[in-house]
Structures are given as C-alpha cells and as structure tokens.
Amino acid sequence: MDIDQLVQPERVHRRVYNDPEIFERELEKIFSVTWIFVGHVSQVPNPGNFFCTDIARQPVVMARHNDGAVKVLFNRCGHRGAQVVSPESGSAETFRCCYHGWEYAMDGKLLAVPQPRGYEESNVRPGDPAYGMAPVPRVAEYRGFVFASLSLTGTSLPEFLGPIASSIDDMVDRSPDGEIEVAGGIARHLYHGNWKLVFENLCDGLHPNCVHQSSIEAAQQQDDAVFSDGAGEIGVRQMRQNGAPWEFWENQVGSWAYQFGHSYLGDYHDDAKLVAARFDPSFADYFKAMEAAKGKERTQEILGVTRWNTNIYPTISFMSQFRQLRVIRPVSVDKTEVLGFCFRLKGAPEKMFHDTIRFANITNAVASPVLTDDLETYARIRRGLTTNGNDWIAMARGLGRDTEEADGGRCAENGLSELHIRNMFDAWSGYMVA
After folding, report:
1. Sheet holding 180-191, edge to edge
2. What CATH topology corresponds to 162-432?
3. What class, spelled out in words, does domain 36-154 have in CATH?
4. In 3-state terms, what secondary structure has residue 196?
5. Domain residues of the chain, as ranges?
6. Do residues 140 and 163 make contact, with C-beta atoms less than 8 angstroms apart?
7. What does the pLDDT look like over 377-432, one tens digit per residue?
8. Which one of 24, 251, 338, 340 has the minimum C-beta count within 10 Å?
9. How many CB atoms lie within 10 A of CB 192?
C-alpha cells in the first residue's frame, strides 16, 4: 500500500505506527524539513553557554556566541567527525574535540589545530568554514523559543506557527516582566510506542475518564482536611477533574486545530477550588504584580485565556497556565523520549514557581499516577497494533461537525472530537508525499 493510501478521512492504517521504513521516511520528510523546537534562550543566557539536543536523530548544539547571538550547530568535528560537545548543557570558552583537539568558537568557527604541520597539502587552516562545526541551515526565534530546520528552503517560522503562536504569547504574557526562563531541571522518560501517540493523547478529551480511572477514584476519596503543602491539593484537583462527566466535555470544553498539524485543547477545570486558588496570598501578590506591570484591563485579558495542552507539531506540547513544556523526540518506530521542562515567570512570586514544580511532579513526572496511566496505554497500543485483525484505526469522532474559524483554523464540535488527530494526519500526509 502506497503512503498516500495509508491515511483516509476517518481512519489511518496501523503501518503508520509500526512500520520501521515509514519511521525512517518520517525522519527524512518531516523532521528533516519542518521547524523543530531546539530550546529556549534562557537555557543559554550568557556567552559560552550551550545546550545539546537532537534534530531527526542528528546531534546539534545550541550556543550563545560572544556577540550575543544564539547559534545552532551540528555537533560534529570537521576533522574526523567525532561529536564535539558531550555534556547536555554547560558553559565553555571554546568547544574542543576530544579526539584530536581541534578547537571551535561558539559559532562553529575553527580556531586552532594542534600540530598543524602536515596539513599544508590539504590546506587545513583556522577560519576555513569547510572544517568548522557547520551551522544548521535555518534558525529562528519566537519570543525566546528557538526553532531550527535542516532544510535550506521552506516556510518561515511565522508562517509555520501561524495562529498557534498565540499559545506561546499566552505563556510569556503571564510573566509580569514579560519574560520566562527554564528552571528546575529536566524530567525525562522513555516510552515504548510511536512518537505520534503522545500528540494524539495530549489533546484527547475522551480518554481521561477511562485511562485515569484509578487516580480519579483515589482523588475523590481524598479527605480535603488532610494537611498539604499545596502539592497535594494541586494534584488532587487535577485528578478529580479528569473525571468530569461527559456532558461537561460535550458542552463546555473546546478543541481547535490549525495548519501544519498544530492544535490545542481548551482548559477543562471548572471546580470551585481552582477558582478559590486565585485568592490565596501568593496569587494575590502575583495579581498585584501583573496589574502594576500591565494594568487591570490587560491583566484580566491575559489571565482570562483558558487553554490546556497546545501541540506544536511535530516536536512540543505545552501548558501555558502551569508553565510546563514537553519535547517529543522520536528514537525508533516504537520508542520515544519525552523531556519535560518547567518555566519561571520573571517578576512573579517564587511560590508560583514552586507550584509549577509540584504540578510537574504530580501530573507529568514518571512517579505520577496520571502519566503512568498514559505510558501503560502507549505500550498496550504498541502491542495491540502488532496483532492480526482490523488493519485500520478510527479517528472519526466529530467528523463533519467542525467549523471554520476566521483565522483559518477549525473548531471542533466539542472536547471529545478527534479533530486534532485528523488535523495532524492531514499535515503528516502533506509532508510524507511531498
């Protein structure tokens, strides 16, 4: 079956999740072409700072050069091809290859070659770009979020983001100082399943009542009078809300999808405790800081945005209200790495950041009773798709009931729609057959 036959309006073939040849084609046709999130500028605040990551399984390094510019380089020596930078992050005056000592500046320029005698015939010399750490073809930034593309041509980053950039705005605008920074380390996990599963799940309003039943029941049995430093309350509130009745998802939760596979799910927290949380002392101080910096009207406008997970396809999903971001790294057709980052709002009370860390630990970390349910589900899907039987997977819920938005996006019938999955496969098909 040809690639263009694997995706139909209401279903997809199981090969898109378990065929190694298709996975390799995805690396070539999607991850090597489109804009991939590399990191945040706060991870490299000063000249000499660096952060290592991958694009399409190719190691790259994001570094702050002496001129203040953020560079993204292929992490490869221009001599014998060794990976130059091995720590995931840090600070250095120069990059030095461990193999033969070739030394590079933060912009990849070759600075020095030990024992240069003998290279005369090949004309190896410092400054020659042919022997430098090559820059990634395209790099662009939006409000501190750095993206890169391995392709010399293609849409610009503003075109690629389109209306979904408003979700990044939502996160950054919540800072009284108008800036955010990565803080608190990296929470990482590896799951046994295809990379597309996590994107499908994070904007799926149909699964929480089923997948998270055990944590919902435990949270419902929790006595509110039990002492908590705040962490328990945040987690219990989240787990209880996963058990909201179907009518709530159908009548009060929305879902939106945009070009290039992006989407977001509307926030689904309506319990009184969440509203009451806004009146605790730390939030009151935050509210005052926001009003002092932005005015009452603008503060109300910013805090009135209610979005849950935003997917920027094909690499990140984030929650602006809780300052969480996940990076999805495909490792193989049935193995995916997820890196979790937390952000601090500059100018906000420190307790706001503590709440961010608590929320991450309770709902997004590997010890979480919520995330572990999802990981088990991904593993079951991986195993289930190896069995014989029906070769097709349905994604038809809400099909034909979407409405066109003025910004070019589509609004789902409700939070139980599978619009976001169909939208991602629209983008998938466009990349794969291009």
Report:
1. 180-191, 335-345, 324-332, 316-319, 307-312, 263-266, 255-257, 410-411, 403-404
2. Naphthalene 1,2-dioxygenase Alpha Subunit; Chain A, domain 1 (3.90.380)
3. mainly beta
4. helix
5. 36-154, 162-432
6. no
7. 999 999 999 998 899 999 999 999 999 999 999 999 998 999 999 999 999 999 99
8. 251
9. 15
